[in-house]
Amino acid sequence: MLTRALIVMLLVLNLGVALWWINRPAPAAPAVEPLPPGVHRLQLVSELPARPEAPPPVAAAVVDRCLRFGPFATAAEAGAAREQLAPRVIQVRPYRDYPGDARSWKVILPAAADIAAAEAAAQRIAAAGFRDWFVIRDGEDARAVALGLYRNEASAQERATALREAGFAVETVPVGAGPVRHWLDVSVPAGFDAADTQRRIETPGQPVDCGALAEPEPVAP
């Protein structure tokens, strides 16, 4: 009898535990303290929103032909035309020439923003081992660095080449060849309307060999 009573009591206890487990209240969510301003909650990688796919790269425009617009009387006029040409062409580069025969050639580093910048550039030239230079403080070439005056273009180009190889964007400029003329060399895509462009900038354009376009305008270091 005692054994039977113990078995019945165990069954009742187990049944009570099972009923409690089934009907137990849901556990309360743990309290989350607010984060300081500017601090974000950590997220799992799987919780992050998907990043949009990057758009495919735009295909590079293909040069169809090249043109030279000009001449322009002043650099300001060339600059205004350049602003109108830029959205219509693949590339636009300034070019300068002189109508007459030069009696000599000078090598200069183009004008800097101010005299202090020109003097700093001159010191870099001196540190690179070059002599015969001076900073021009007034006149047409104010804030430029003069790097030599030569009787023929070949000597001037030899000096300029050595300076360019050292990292200085110098120019060779003819002396006594008359006023400078300004041009704009452009590379254009297929379908470019040259006639409409000429009307807009009020300057004619002529075809040129793309391989003979002007080098990019030098910039003083």
Low-confidence stretches: 54-59, 216-221
Counting DSSP E segments of at least 2 residues, the number of strands comes to 8
Question: Judging from the principal axes of the Cα atoms, what is the shape?
Answer: elongated
Distance linking N and C termini:
110 Å
Assign the CATH class of one domain.
Alpha Beta
Pfam family, one: SPOR
InterPro entries: SPOR-like_dom, SPOR-like_sf
Protein name: SPOR domain-containing protein
Topology (SSEs and partners):
Layout: H1 2-23, E1 65-72, H2 75-85, E2 91-97, E3 104-109, H3 115-127, E4 134-135, E5 145-150, H4 153-165, E6 171-175, E7 181-188, H5 194-201, E8 205-208
Antiparallel strand pairs: 1-7, 1-8, 2-7, 3-5, 3-6, 4-5
